[in-house]
């Protein structure tokens, strides 16, 4: 029995040595996107060496930040005008070149608009089936993800030689941003200029509030707000908490707030400590985006609203009275 | 003038509360209402609009799946697609069919049918993968315009506004290209009864995945499908004061 277990140990350690993960960092040429830290945490759970690829037109800030992250062994830097706008058509050949040189067993990115755009293209080029938005790592080839808007949890084993994975950031506590000393090296050189696409411009929603997917508190509004102007009630309440403001699809479709505030199956997935749903009925598609929040508060005048089935604290009241009163009493 | 291939998937209707089967191998789909994946309706609408604006000459709707997939092709035809292609994959093979297989099939068809554009939904609401458009673009080595909020034809190609995390971004792509539709690209039309009747007469070709030379060997094993954890029932508080004290109790303020 002793011999058996030591043999198992040996086998495990061999596996550990064989595993190596490439994390594709997300940044905006000025700062690292925090989801990269959650993704590195998932990479550490898989085990083995963690290498981070930083590509962009300006990689200094992100590569310096990533080199200090605990558990990062190596940082590959690719600074090139070809990566303007982080187009998948330019990044894919770079990731493939890195893969070709280092033979990673896993390639990861955060399940953001960026990761979702780039990684499936990489996977197709490697002829492997990518795995979207994992919420847990069971072993080096077995992963957990949700399907049907979070109403079923799928555990799957990948048969592919290289696992290409996007990671749901809210399910992995971020790796420590300090304490690491990764070696910074240039990424494999190549001609990554391409003529298929061209980045033109970005129109970002300006806000002083915390970023939605990493906020500790989120105040979210739905159709019940009745107009975009009325969202001011939520901004005032959010100020009290230092919270981010989100919205249901109904509020976005009605034009009350911009698209990027949408929380749900097809918007952002959030899991703050406190989620306050105001005037949101709680459709399946909305719940998919927020039901992992630690504490859910619902304010709705309809006692039958499905949101009350997931809320820890419910208040059946007219939001136009209750929200200002709540803001005043905090 | 271009030819557009639109991918449509038959999925459990978005309003159905799905149930995991007792064997924990999947969700119950027998006797459950199915319909066209909502994002695919948006893709079909966009393709038909392009044809109405004379930017496209023909719209071909493709669905991959068991024989019932023909229903969603008929829906696409009733919305204005010109003809359909049903790639039959069923049973166990369909249960383990992944976007990697679908993208290879679509890429093959795009070339066979000489399509200039492939428009897909950004994700299917059953597997929630959000992969097929990106992978189809990769197989074809075409540019990808994912999560489209607006698509405009220009002399040189397309100008696309995309939904990204912080807002919107604009890119230009060459044609041919693969696009994926986000929710706000358009509002899909309803199929009217006369159009549903007409759609029954539109051509629908059936092919097998093997006829297209695409290997559909499974890339994953399903270990289990389970119910998500159930949240503990909460409390209804009578007024704002009670809410404030609960929040204080929880350390939230």
TrEMBL record, chain A:
**Which keywords annotate this record?**
Electron transport, FAD, Flavoprotein, Mitochondrion, Transport
Family classification:
Belongs to the ETF alpha-subunit/FixB family.
First-listed, main subcellular location of the protein, grouped into a coarse class: mitochondrion
Q: Which GO terms describe its biological process?
A: fatty acid beta-oxidation using acyl-CoA dehydrogenase
Protein name per Swiss-Prot or TrEMBL: Electron transfer flavoprotein subunit alpha
Q: Which PROSITE patterns match?
A: ETF_ALPHA
Q: What is this protein's function?
A: The electron transfer flavoprotein serves as a specific electron acceptor for several dehydrogenases, including five acyl-CoA dehydrogenases, glutaryl-CoA and sarcosine dehydrogenase. It transfers the electrons to the main mitochondrial respiratory chain via ETF-ubiquinone oxidoreductase (ETF dehydrogenase).
Its Gene Ontology cellular component terms are: electron transfer flavoprotein complex; mitochondrial matrix
Q: Where in the cell is it found?
A: Mitochondrion matrix
Q: Where are the transmembrane segments?
A: none
Q: How does it assemble?
A: Heterodimer of an alpha and a beta subunit.
GO function terms (MF aspect): electron transfer activity; flavin adenine dinucleotide binding
Q: Where does FAD bind?
A: 223, 248-249, 262-266, 279-286, 300
Boundaries of every Electron transfer flavoprotein alpha/beta-subunit N-terminal domain copy: 21-203
In the record's cofactor note, how is the cofactor described as bound?
Binds 1 FAD per dimer.
Q: Which gene encodes it?
A: 101896123
The record's listing under SMART domains reads: ETF
UniProtKB/TrEMBL annotation, chain B:
**Residues in domain Electron transfer flavoprotein alpha/beta-subunit N-terminal?**
24-216
Tagged with keyword Electron transport: yes
Where does the record say this protein resides? Answer: Mitochondrion matrix
SUPFAM superfamilies listed in its UniProt record? Adenine nucleotide alpha hydrolases-like
Q: Can the keyword Mitochondrion be found in this entry's annotation? A: yes
One GO molecular-function entry: electron transfer activity
UniProt record, GO biological process: amino acid catabolic process; fatty acid beta-oxidation using acyl-CoA dehydrogenase
What are the entry keywords? Electron transport, Mitochondrion, Transport
What do the Gene Ontology cellular component annotations say?
A: mitochondrial matrix
Which PANTHER family is this protein grouped with?
ELECTRON TRANSFER FLAVOPROTEIN BETA-SUBUNIT (PTHR21294), ELECTRON TRANSFER FLAVOPROTEIN SUBUNIT BETA (PTHR21294:SF8)
Q: What does this protein do?
A: Heterodimeric electron transfer flavoprotein that accepts electrons from several mitochondrial dehydrogenases, including acyl-CoA dehydrogenases, glutaryl-CoA and sarcosine dehydrogenase. It transfers the electrons to the main mitochondrial respiratory chain via ETF-ubiquinone oxidoreductase. Required for normal mitochondrial fatty acid oxidation and normal amino acid metabolism. ETFB binds an AMP molecule that probably has a purely structural role.
Family indicated by similarity: Belongs to the ETF beta-subunit/FixA family.
Q: How does it assemble?
A: Heterodimer of an alpha and a beta subunit. Heterodimer composed of ETFA and ETFB. Identified in a complex that contains ETFA, ETFB and ETFRF1. Interacts with ACADM.
* Name of the protein in question: Electron transfer flavoprotein subunit beta
Q: Which gene encodes it?
A: LOC101889427
């Amino acid at each position: 029995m002793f011999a058996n277990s030591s043999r198992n140990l040996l086998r495990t350690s061999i596996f550990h040595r064989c595993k190596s993960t490439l994390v594709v960092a997300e940044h905006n040429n000025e700062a690292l996107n925090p989801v990269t830290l959650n993704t590195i945490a998932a990479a550490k759970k898989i085990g083995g060496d963690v290498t981070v690829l930083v590509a962009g037109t300006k990689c200094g800030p992100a590569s310096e930040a990533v080199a200090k992250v605990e558990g990062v062994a190596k940082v590959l830097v690719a600074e090139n005008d070809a990566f303007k706008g982080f187009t998948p058509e330019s990044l894919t050949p770079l990731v493939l070149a890195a893969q070709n040189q280092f033979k990673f067993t896993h390639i990861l990115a955060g399940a953001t608009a960026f990761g979702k755009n780039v990684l499936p293209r990489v996977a197709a080029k490697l002829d492997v089936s990518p795995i979207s938005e994992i919420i847990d790592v069971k072993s080096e080839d077995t992963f957990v993800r949700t399907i049907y808007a979070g109403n079923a949890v799928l555990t799957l084993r990948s048969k592919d030689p290289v696992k290409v994975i996007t990671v749901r950031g809210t399910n992995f506590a971020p790796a420590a941003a300090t304490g690491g000393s990764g070696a910074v090296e240039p990424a494999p050189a190549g001609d990554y200029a391409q003529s298929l696409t061209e980045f033109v411009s970005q129109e970002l929603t300006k806000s002083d509030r915390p970023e939605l997917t990493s906020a500790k508190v989120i105040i979210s509004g739905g159709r019940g707000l009745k107009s975009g102007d009325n969202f001011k009630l939520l901004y005032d309440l959010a100020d009290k908490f230092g919270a981010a403001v989100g919205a249901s699809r109904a509020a976005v479709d009605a034009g009350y707030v911009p698209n990027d505030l949408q929380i749900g199956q097809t918007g952002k997935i959030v899991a703050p400590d406190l989620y306050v749903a105001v005037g949101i009925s709680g459709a399946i598609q909305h719940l998919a985006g927020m039901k992992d929040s630690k504490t859910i508060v619902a304010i709705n005048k309809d006692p039958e609203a499905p949101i009350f089935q997931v809320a820890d604290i419910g208040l059946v009241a007219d939001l136009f009275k209750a929200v200002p009163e709540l803001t005043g009493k905090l | 003038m271009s030819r557009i291939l639109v991918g449509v998937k038959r999925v459990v209707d978005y309003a159905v509360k799905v149930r995991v089967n007792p064997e924990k191998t999947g969700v119950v789909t027998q006797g459950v209402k199915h319909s066209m994946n909502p994002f695919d309706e948006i893709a079909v609408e966009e393709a038909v609009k392009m044809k109405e604006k004379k930017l496209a000459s023909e719209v071909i709707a493709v669905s991959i799946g068991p024989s019932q997939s023909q229903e969603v092709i008929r829906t696409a035809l009733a919305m204005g697609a010109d003809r359909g292609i049903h790639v039959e994959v069923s049973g166990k093979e369909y249960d383990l069919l992944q976007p990697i297989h679908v993208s290879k099939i679509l890429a093959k068809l795009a070339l066979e049918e000489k399509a200039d554009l492939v428009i897909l939904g950004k994700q299917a609401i059953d597997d929630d993968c959000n992969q097929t458009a990106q992978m189809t673009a990769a197989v074809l080595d075409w540019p990808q315009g994912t999560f489209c909020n607006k698509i405009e034809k220009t002399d040189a190609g397309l100008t696309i506004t995309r939904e990204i995390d912080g807002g919107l971004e604009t890119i230009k792509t060459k044609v041919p290209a693969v696009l994926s539709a986000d929710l706000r690209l358009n509002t899909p039309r309803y199929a009217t009864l006369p159009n549903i009747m007409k759609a029954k007469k539109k051509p629908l070709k059936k092919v097998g995945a093997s006829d297209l030379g695409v290997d559909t060997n499974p890339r994953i094993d399903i270990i289990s499908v389970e119910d998500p954890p159930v949240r503990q029932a909460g409390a209804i508080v009578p007024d704002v004061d009670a809410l404030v004290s609960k929040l204080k109790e929880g350390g939230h303020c």
